[in-house]
Every structure is written in structure tokens, then in C-alpha cells.
Amino acid sequence: MAFSSESNMAPLFGDEYQSLRESVSALAQKKILPFAQDVDENARYPQEAADALQQAGLAAAHVPEEFGGQGADALATVIIIEEVARVCGASSLIPAVNKLGSVPLLIGASQEQNKKYLTQLAQGKGFSYCLSESEAGSDAAAMKTKATASGDKWILSGSKKWISNAGVSEFYTVLATTDPSKGSKGISAFIVEKSDAGVSFGAHEKKMGFRGSPTREVYFDNVELSQDRLIGEVGTGFGLAMKTLDHTRITIAAQALGIAQGALDVAKRYSHERQQFGKAIFDFQAIQFMLADMAMQIEAARSLTYAAAVKSERGEVDLTFFSAASKCFATDVAMKVTTDAVQILGGYGYVSDYPVERMMRDAKLTQIYEGTNQIQRIVMARNLDTLN
Ligand code: CAA
After folding, report:
1. Residue 7 has what DSSP assignment?
2. Is the Cα torsion angle 34, 42, 258, 263 positive or negative in sign?
3. 137 C-alpha vs ligand 1 centroid, how far in Å?
4. How far is the CA of 375 from the centre of ligand 1 (A)?
5. CA distances (Å), 251 to each of 96, 98, 324, in order?
């Protein structure tokens, strides 16, 4: 055990992750941050971020190298999302949604399906995930969208709600019931293309946060799908959807972590610049305690999120618990930290001169999507026995 500054102990996570962080951070500062406020104010798609991420191979870095991706592991993907979210939450949804839409294929699709679709994902065609419906949010198995067998085809009808990057993405993993009498065991997963006849999109939702990322309904009006659009076996869709979330709730934790870190960055800087009562507000213990708490909570969230990412990569038995725990903890931290950042900036924090009010609005959604934090606690409770 070494205590001196000359310790040659290996960093907790290898050097390659540190250099990845530095390069994503540089790209985010230069090519994403300058547009973040405009993207939010005008609720417009962050095309500059999409282009920059795609050019750098970061829009879907998790895609295996054999399909033209970077083969980024779960921890590397977390770091990419975290560093983008640190400057722009809406832009961080690009790599996060691409992973969410395509993990069902990585888990359950055939080599041919993966070759066809993941190759195009790596080339820049987005992939969204269609699970939720207007009457099936937390109770995902209550979905009504159905796929009916007709000859050698499936006919898909119904609609999905709150679909991130809907309309921008070229491909959609859609969960539909193929046998309503079987509940969650009668659900199957399909690949749907934006250009399939009968696919259309609703109006853009007017959202509190993540305003640059389009959220729309997706409608399926008797969409004809060939057998090669079915992912895995009939009736295995719900398990596939849940297994997917085990891997991707960690990316929401990463997003929350980045948003919280971004808010701390601003609050810390501001506290040294802002003078009141003849000194920098950082010199008041009340502000120091807030900043210390914010940093402490972020570091705890980061440790849990990185641990969950390692478990995702290794497919460990307690992944379901860790994934839900990291999402729940990091997003609650993001809500608290961004609210405190607004408080530290006072009147300046409440207006859009500084990004912390945007970050606070963005943080709120992370407590809701990919399963509310109440659902995460249910998932954790059901998986307590998997812990050591
Ligand atoms: N891995 C594998 N299988 C799983 C599983 C997992 N993690 N979780 C559940 N299953 C299986 C169960 O074993 C069970 O199978 P058996 O019957 O063979 O045992 C089956 O799935 C049904 O499981 P449950 O009985 O636990 O199902 P439930 O109806 O009680 O629901 C739930 C469980 C955890 C509440 C689930 O409905 C859920 O996660 N709800 C939240 C939905 C959600 O997260 N939506 C997010 C939408 S995506 C989004 O928000 C993306 C975005 O915009 C960025």
C-alpha cells in the first residue's frame, strides 16, 4: 500500500478512460456547448452535436467493431454520455437513445439482423426504443399495441408515447403484444423502420427540460413486417425489454451525473467570482457546505454508476439491482445538486443567463424516464437477494 505522492498504483479505472474523458470533454466544450442554450430555448434538435458526435464515432460508440462501431464498453459509453450531458443534456440523449434502441438487438437478434441494422446505426442512422404507451407507463406489460400474424407476415397496429428522438431515428425497437391472453409472456419485440408504410409521428411534446430532444408519439397503422423483423422468439419481448433496461438505466445515471457535474462546475466558478458583503460568496461557510455536499453526492453517484457499468459489461448477477440503484441515486443527486446550484446563483440562477436553471429542468426528467425512481425502488427490492 503506497501513501506517498510517488505512488505508482494504477488508477482506479485505466488511463484509456481518462484520455477518452478528456477527448469527449474537449469536443463537448468546442462543438456542443456553444449551441446548448439555443437548442433549449428554441426546442430544436442539436444537429451540431449529432454531427460532431457522429464524426468522432461517439454517437453510437457501443456498436461492436465488427459492425463498424467503436466497440466501446459500458464504462466508456457512460463516460461519453456523462461528458456530453455536462454541457448539454439534450445532446447526451443521442448516444443514450442509440444504445437503448439497439441493446435489444445486441441481446436477442440474429447475426444477420445485427449486421443489417447495427452497421447502419454506426453510420449515423438513429435507433429509438418504443415501450411506453399512454395507458402503459410504469405498468409496461399492460401495452395494447399488437402484432398479429397474417400468413408469413406480422401486422403491427397501435401507438407508443413519449418516444425519445422519434422522427429523427431511422429505426425503432417496438414492443407489442402477440398474445394478449398471456400478459407479459405474450409480448414480442420487432424492428420497425421509419420508412415502413403505416408509420407516422405525433406532434412534438412541449417539455419542461431536454427540450432539444424530440419526444413524440409513434403511430403504427397496420404496418406490415416480415419475419426477419422479429427479434428473438415470439413471446420473449418483455424479458428482452427488461434486460435492455438493466444495461441502459446506467446511461441515465451517467446523464444525471454529467448534468450534476455541470451544475457544480458553474456554481463553484460563480461562488469565487460573486462578491457580496465585501468578499467572494465562496468565503461564507454556508456556501462551502453546499458545494462540499454537492461534490460528495456526485462522487458517490459516480462510484455507484461506474460499478454498475462494470457489472453490465461482465453480466453479473446483481446487475438489475445495481442498474436501478445507480439510476435512482444519480438522478436524485442530480435533482438536488442542480436545485442547490440555482440557489447558490440566486437571482442569476433563476434566469437563463446561466445554464443551471436548464440543468435543473433537465434533471427532473432523469427521475422519471427509463422507469420512475419509485419503479427503480421496486426493482431493487425484488433483487435484494442477488447482493452479496
Ligand atoms: N431481466 C430479465 N427478465 C425480467 C427482468 C429482468 N430485469 N425483470 C422482469 N423480468 C421478467 C420476469 O422474470 C417475469 O418473467 P417470468 O414470469 O417468467 O418470471 C416477467 O419479466 C414479468 O416480470 P414482473 O412480474 O416483474 O413484471 P411486472 O409487470 O411486475 O413489471 C416492472 C415489472 C419492473 C414494474 C416493469 O414493468 C418496469 O420496469 N416498468 C417501468 C417501465 C420503464 O422503465 N419504462 C421506460 C420506458 S423507456 C424510456 O423512458 C426511454 C427514454 O425515453 C430515454
Report:
1. -
2. positive
3. 11
4. 9
5. 6, 11, 11
Q: How far apart are CA 300 and CA 264, in angstroms?
A: 14
Is-contact 178 186, C-beta < 8 A? yes
Rounded-to-integer distance, Cα 104 and Cα 218, Å: 19
Residues with a CB atom less than 6 Å from ligand 1: 97, 100, 129, 131-132, 138-141, 164, 184, 238-239, 242-243, 245-246, 320, 369-371, 375, 378-379
Reduced to 3 states, what is the DSSP secondary structure of residue 210? coil
Told to judge if 224 belongs to the known catalytic residues of this protein, a careful annotator would answer no
Instruction: Tell me the pLDDT tens digit for each residue of 339-377.
Output: 999 999 999 999 999 999 999 999 999 999 999 999 999
In the chain, the domains with their CATH numbers are: 10-122 (1.10.540.10), 127-238 (2.40.110.10), 245-386 (1.20.140.10)
Instruction: Note the pTM of the prediction, 2 decimals.
Output: 0.96
Q: How far apart are CA 345 and CA 353, in angstroms?
A: 11
**For residue 273, what pLDDT band results from cuts at 50, 70 and 90?**
very high
d(CA 205, CA 43): 10
